[in-house]
Amino acid sequence: AHKLQVQGLYKAYGQTLALDRVDLHVAAGEFVTLLGPSGSGKSTLLQLICGLTPPSGGKLLIDGRDQTFAPPAQRDIGVVFQNYALFPHLSVGENVAFPLRIRKVDRAAMARRTEAALEMVGLHGYAARMPAELSGGQQQRVALARCLVYRPSLILMDESFSALDRNLRLVMQDEVRRIHRETGTSFVFVTHDQEEAMTMSDRICLMNQGRIEQFDTPRALYATP
Ligand code: ADP
Ligand code: ADP
C-alpha cells in the first residue's frame, strides 16, 4: 500500500507552470528525496502535499484517501521548514507539546510524549529552555521533535539543513536517518545537494522545470557505467 500518491498534480502561477503534471508514489516507511535546481518545483510540490497551497489540478491521496483539498490540520503530515519556525515566546517543551495541545491530548500523555520526542532528537532535559538560548542545530531538532510528537505517517523536510555548517549537517543527516529507521515514518525530503540526497534516500526524485525527470534509487541513478 502506498502512503502517498500524487497523480497528475499541477500548479500554475499566472503563466508559470511551477509543477507540470507530476506523478509520485511514496511507499509506507520510504525515504524519498526531491532533488533539483532552484525553481524546479520542489517547494511547490511540498506545499501541495501539506496543503499550504491548493493545486490547479490533479489528485493527492494519503493512505488511500483523497486529500487534494483537505486543510493542512486534517492531513496526517508533519513539516520541518528551513527556518525552524519555532514559537519564540514558548519554551522548548511547550513548542514540542503544541501539536498535542491543539489535538486536545490529555496532560499526562502530553508530558510523556513530549519527553519521548525530545529524547528521540537528543534533547532530553531541554524542555524548560527557550528557543533563543539554543544553537541552530538544536532548534532544528526541536522542530523535528514537534513533528514527531504527534506521530504523523509522513514527514516533509524542506531544505532543513541548508542553514547549518557542514559538520552539523552530517550529524543531523545521521540523526534523521536513525529516526526514520526507528519510527518507520515515510519522509519526503527536499534538497539541492546531491551528496545529501545520495546518503539519505531510499529513492531520489530528480526534478527539473516542474517535472520529475527520473525517480530511482541512488545506486541506479549514479552508477558509473
Ligand atoms: P524550487 O523549490 O525547486 O526552488 P519552486 O517550487 O519554489 O522551486 O518554484 C517553481 C517555479 O514556480 C519557479 O519558477 C518559481 O518562480 C515559481 N513560483 C513558486 N512560487 C510562486 C508564487 N507564489 N508565485 C509565483 N510564482 C511562484
Ligand atoms: P502514549 O503516551 O501515547 O501512550 P508513550 O508516550 O508512552 O505513548 O510512548 C510510547 C512509545 O512510543 C515510546 O517508546 C516512544 O518512544 C514511542 N514514540 C514516541 N513518538 C513516536 C513516533 N513519532 N513514532 C513512533 N514511536 C514513537
Automatic annotation (TrEMBL):
Keywords for the protein's UniProt record, in alphabetical order: ATP-binding, Nucleotide-binding, Transport
Q: Which domain of life is it from?
A: Bacteria
Q: ATP-binding: is it a keyword of this entry? A: yes
Q: GO CC terms on record? A: ATP-binding cassette (ABC) transporter complex
- Positions of the ABC transporter domain: 4-225
Give an example GO biological process.
Answer: quaternary ammonium group transport
GO molecular-function terms, A-Z: ATP binding; ATP hydrolysis activity; transmembrane transporter activity
Protein name from the UniProt record: ABC transporter ATP-binding protein
Q: Which organism is it from?
A: Komagataeibacter rhaeticus
